[in-house]
Design a protein that fits this description.
Blueprint (H helix, E strand, L loop, with lengths): L1 E6 L2 E2 L2 E2 L1 H17 E9 L4 H8 L5 E6 L8 H15 L3 E5 L2 H14 L3 E5 L1 E5 L2 E8 L4 E6 L5 E5 L16 E6 L27 E5 L9 H11 L2 E4 L1 H5 L20 E5 L5 H7 L4 E6 L6 H4 L2 E4 L2 H17 L1
Parallel strand pairs: 1-4, 1-6, 4-5, 5-12, 6-11, 7-11, 13-14, 13-15, 15-16, 16-17
Antiparallel strand pairs: 2-3, 8-9, 9-10
This protein binds flavin-adenine dinucleotide (FAD).
The site of flavin-adenine dinucleotide has 28 residues, from helix 6, helix 7, strand 16 and helix 9.
């Protein structure tokens, strides 16, 4: 049977948003493959999390209890996932292209000797195979890939599909198992929350980013105000980060984070290829730049040729008015 298993990430007793996206997509492709959507949660036995996943189409949830894996550990995750896969034999395994998915799925694919397509932005089913679309050459081209081996393994770029609406009253069978992480060579002793309590850039639906033209870290406050008004996360170009205006965890691009929001607003960012590599799949791109020839305008859906220091406060005011209406 063509079951689709998702690795559902959770934190602080809550299922992460990326897992709901995976659940909806898994449910859709499982019905084309003649199977059902299932999920695995590692390091918890909380059945409430199963209910949350059921609302997005998951029919069965494996809760793998394992004290050693209450905090993420790549080796341990790989071991317990390999054990579960040997038992339940899913046709397809999906994980999010987050730090967790990016670190454990390649290990797992090596261990299982199966193919993995990473950072998938679209997928469809052809017979018993999933055809996954993912960017190559820093996002300049998209390629369709079919996986040989079993299970077919994919990591999905967050915000590629959307989760859809939860179904009230849906239920999933919960199966509690005690998992053995084996002899771990490393252990996560602490997980430290970043300075910002905003949604991480890689999962954000709205992003406002500043470039070298911001001129100082103090000036980033105008982007903070704009972001706070619309519930966005603030990003930065590498030039802004290298100049010390923003920390590295805000960098978008080839050597920063790959983002995929519904709206990406670029202020004083020229649009270098390495920056585009991190944000070109954004659904709507707005660019504000003084230079009408700036390359970012070739990618932007909406462009404003103007000084960002005039435009940003105006946008913040207009958004505030609109939000209050
Ligand atoms: C191996 C490698 C990896 C890299 N990785 C990354 C990466 O991950 N992310 C990344 O961003 N870059 C990366 N870069 C750097 C990249 O090539 C660019 O240098 C960088 O993106 C430029 O940042 P910027 O657009 O902020 O600055 P600039 O290119 O200097 O552009 C500033 C822009 O602001 C405009 N401007 C100036 N004043 C104003 C104003 N008042 N109002 C409006 N507009 C104004 C200018 O017209 C200009 O277009 C990488 C480079 C290399 C070689």
């Amino acid at each position: 049977m063509g079951n689709v298993l998702i690795l559902a990430e959770h934190q602080n007793g809550k299922v992460k948003k990326t897992a709901f996206e995976l659940a909806s997509k898994a449910s859709e492709i499982a019905s084309s493959l003649g199977g059902q959507a299932e999920a695995v949660l590692i390091g918890t036995n909380d059945e409430n999390l199963s209910k949350e996943l059921a609302a997005y189409g998951i029919k069965k949830v494996y809760l793998l209890e394992c004290p050693a894996l209450e905090k993420y550990n790549a080796e341990g995750y790989t071991k317990v996932l390999a054990d579960l896969i040997a038992e339940v034999k899913p046709e397809v395994l999906l994980a999010a292209a987050t730090p967790v998915g990016k670190s454990c799925m390649p290990r797992l694919s090596g261990k299982l000797n199966s193919g993995l397509v990473s950072d998938v932005v679209d997928l469809k089913v052809d017979g018993s195979k999933v055809i996954a679309t993912h960017p190559i050459y820093s996002g300049k081209a998209l390629v369709d890939v079919k996986v040989n081996g079993s299970p077919q393994m994919l990591t999905i770029r967050p915000n590629s599909f959307g989760a859809g609406s939860p179904q009230d009253g849906a239920t999933a069978e919960s199966i509690k198992k005690t998992a053995d992480a084996g002899e771990l060579k490393s252990k996560m002793v602490d997980l430290v929350q970043g300075a910002s309590d905003k949604v991480d850039l890689t999962e954000a639906e709205l992003i406002v980013s500043g470039g070298r033209a911001m001129k100082s870290s103090d000036n980033f406050k105008i982007l903070d105000d704009l972001a706070a008004t619309i519930g966005a996360t603030v990003g930065a170009s590498r030039a802004a980060v290298d100049s010390g205006y923003a920390p590295h965890d805000m960098q978008v691009g080839q050597t920063g984070k790959v983002v995929n929001p519904k709206l990406y607003m670029a202020f004083g960012i020229s649009g270098a290829i390495q920056h585009l590599a991190g944000m070109r799949t954004s659904k709507v791109i707005v660019a504000v730049n003084k230079d009408p020839e700036a390359p970012i305008f070739q990618k932007a859906d909406y462009g404003i040729v103007a000084d960002l220091f005039e435009v940003v406060p105006m946008l913040t005011e207009e958004f505030k008015k609109a939000m209050n209406e």
